[in-house]
Structure formats: structure tokens, C-alpha cells
Amino acid sequence: MTKRFETVDLRRIMTVSLGRRKSLASTKRMAQVPTTAGAEAFFASLPRYLKADDLQALIAAIVAARRKNKPVIWMAGGHLIKVGLNPIVIDLIDSGIITGLCLNGAGLIHDSELALVGRTSEDVAAGIDDGSFGMSRETAAFFAEAAAYADRHTIGLGEAAGTLLEERKTLYRKASLLAACHRRGIPAMVHIAVDTDIICQHPVYDPAAAARASHHDFTILAREIARGENGGVFVNIGSAVILPEVFLKALTVARNIYHHPKRIITANFDMISQYRPAVNVVSRPTRSGGTGYNFVGHHEIMIPLLAWGIKAYRRAKPSRATRGTHPRR
User: Fold this and answer.
1) 42 with 98: CB under 8 angstroms?
2) How far is CA 276 from the centre of its chain?
3) In sequence order, what DSSP letters do the residues of 288-329 get, joined into one string?
4) Which DSSP helix (H) or strand (E) runs through 153?
5) Where are the domains of the chain?
6) At the top level of CATH, which class does the domain 50-321 belong to?
């Protein structure tokens, strides 16, 4: 059948080297893992009102969840990685606080670039002007290899990427969230959307393999959510559309098959208040039980503060660590 419409031949694109590409974020500027020094005094000094009270309640809920062996799942967009917060999150993974991690396609891209060359986040405006935006060949090649590996082994995209980063001993793998999940043996789940990420521009991109691997991660997420009855915690950080939508559908699947969880804790952290996270993460999932929190503030400040509080509360006695919990609706 003759093609009705002309298409672009992606084999004609000109790629650039990731190692030579100018990047705006690097491992050299990453956050340092906070100690607990001064944390108790700081949190004790906060007023017991509004978001200060909510933050302490969320921290206490996360600590309580892990003491009850309930899941604590973090969902994050690429911005968390670009502002240097991987060490903070990896510390929470290694210490057993985070039991599962969800990233969108941008998250996989930025995390793998950090692991490969120690840098990520290109100058989008400059790259669009000359057609070089998103054309790093190593990034596309790694994503394609991860999708193919996942397809061969019938595993998720997140597990495949973490496995490859570790097995190949990539130079900066210690800075990678996906590699950290692999080392810890917890699920890393990547949820993509077709044609939204730079890897879709490359001829090596296999949309079928990538979609199958991403959907496998969706089924893992639904099972992990089902384990969250009566205290599991689910936190969205900076994903405005993809992960809130994925979370809501996975929660529906869990409740359809297992009839729970009903009583969960959810939280959203973003720099501005946005509709889907507020509705699909905070309010709808907790409408018939549980508690939802919404925090507005810059990730590079709010997430270290959250982690600092978690580590401090975890060291406290259980009676004190749960002091901040309270029903809100």
C-alpha cells in the first residue's frame, strides 16, 4: 500500500557525543547526605500549624510505615535529579526507608546520563536552535539497550536499566537511583509516554519494546500499592502529569483485584500547585480513608528537609516519632 503521507527518516539525524555535550548538572554539585545533628531541635521549634504540622505528620507517617513493614514508594520526575538530589534519595534507599521508586522517561534519561558521564541536563534553548537538542547518541543507545534487555528477560524497564548500569560498572553508577535500587533489591519502575522524551527522536528507539517494559513496571507498581493497606506511604515529587496518572490507574487496579489499600498516606511536593498531583495523588486516593498532604516549595530545599526529618524521627523512640500524626479529613 502506498504511503498516504510523507514521514521523516530518523536514520538521517546527526547525533552528538554525550561526553562532549554541554550539561547544566553534574555530580560535583550534588547535595550532601544530611546528618541528624540539630534536627530534633529544629523540628521541635516549628509551629504546630498548617504546613509545618503537615510536614512533621508526613515524616512521622513514613517512619511508622517502615516500622510496620509497609511500603514507602517515591515517584519523581526528572527535576529531582537535575537539582542534585540523588545522594539524598539513595541514602533513603540504602537505609531501607524507600521501598520502591517510580520515574518517568525523563527520570531514566537524566539518571542514566549521570551514571554514564557524571553530567546531565542540556541547554534546551540552544539545542533547539541548531537541532542538536536530545541528540546524544549514548543516551539513546543506553535506553534502547535497556528496553531490549527488559524485553528479552521479561522484566521492567527500571530493573533492566539498573541492572545494566551495575553490571557494566558505569563510572558514576554510585550516583544513580536506578543502580541503587538494583543494589538494594527493591523495584525501580519507569513509566514512559510515547514521543515525549528525547530518545523517541532516535532511529534506535523501539517503541514496542519500551512500551512493554514500561507496562511491566505498571503491573509491579499495582502490586506494590496493594501492600500499602493501613499506613503505606506514596510520595510524588515534581511529576505534574505522567506519574500522578499512572499512580491513580495502578491504585485502581490494586483495589479492583485485592480490594485494598483503602487507608494510605499520600503526599505531593512541587514548586507550584498543579491540578493532577493535587487530585490524583492527594485527594482522590484518600477520599474514603487515609490522609493526603500537598507541599509547595523548591525541591532542592524541601526534599533535603524531608529526609533530614525522616532520619531524625527514625532515631527517636516510637512514641515520639509518631507524635506528629493526625487525621486531617
Assistant:
1) no
2) 16
3) TSEEEEEEES-HHHHHHHHHHHHHHHHHS-HHHHTTT-----
4) helix 137-153
5) 50-321
6) alpha beta
Residue type, 101: L
The conformation of residue 280, written as its DSSP 8-state character, comes to I
CA distance 186 to 169: 19
**pTM of structure:** 0.92
For every residue of 164-201, DSSP letters joined together read HHHHTT-TTGGG-HHHHHHHHT--EEEE--TT-SGGGG
* pLDDT tens per residue across all 329 residues of the chain: 677 888 788 888 888 888 888 888 999 999 999 888 999 899 999 999 999 999 999 999 999 999 999 999 999 999 999 999 999 999 999 999 999 999 999 999 999 999 999 999 888 988 888 888 888 899 999 999 999 999 999 999 999 999 999 999 999 999 999 999 999 999 999 999 999 998 899 999 999 999 999 999 999 999 999 999 999 999 999 999 999 999 999 999 999 999 999 999 999 999 999 999 999 999 999 998 899 999 999 999 999 999 999 999 988 765 444 444 443 43
CA distance 237 to 12: 37
Strands 119-122 and 188-191: unpaired
